[in-house]
Amino acid sequence: MLGKDRDELQQNYAELKRSSSDNVQKLTQLGAENMYLKDNFNKLVDDNNDLVDRLRAISSVVIAVGTEQPPVYSKYKPTALLDSSSVVS
Questions:
Q1: For the segment 43-52, what is each residue's pLDDT rounded down to a tens digit?
Q2: CA distances, 59 to each of 51, 56, 63, 65 (Å)
Q3: What does the DSSP assignment read for 61-75?
Q4: Where does the source fall among the domains of life (predicted)?
Q5: If DSSP states are collapsed to H, E and C, what string results for 18-80?
Q6: Model pTM greater than 0.70?
């Protein structure tokens, strides 16, 4: 009976050792995948920040150009002017 328990313990130990080895391999693989995803995510964030900076630069140029020159339509005066006699009270 004691020999049977010892054999069972040895089998359990061997199984746990294999399982531990498999877990280490899986953990290493998942760590590599995590680094890959992290690098890609960081690259996407950097690209997004770059695009936002470009949009801000374009927007500031458009605003600056828009404030330096009056709009085209402001050069024209309305053709029909109302005087005080034509207003109905």
A1: 999 999 999 9
A2: 12, 5, 6, 10
A3: HHHHHHHHS--GGGG
A4: Bacteria
A5: HHHHHHHHHHHHHHHHHHHHHHHHHHHHHHHHHHHHHHHHHHHHHHHHHHHCCCHHHHCCCCC
A6: no
Tokens of 65: 């150009």
Name the residue type at position 30: L
Collapsing DSSP states into helix, strand and coil, what is residue 81? coil
Between the alpha carbon of residue 39 and those of residues 10, 28, 34, 52, the distances in Å are: 43, 17, 9, 20
Q: Does 86 have pLDDT greater than 90?
A: no
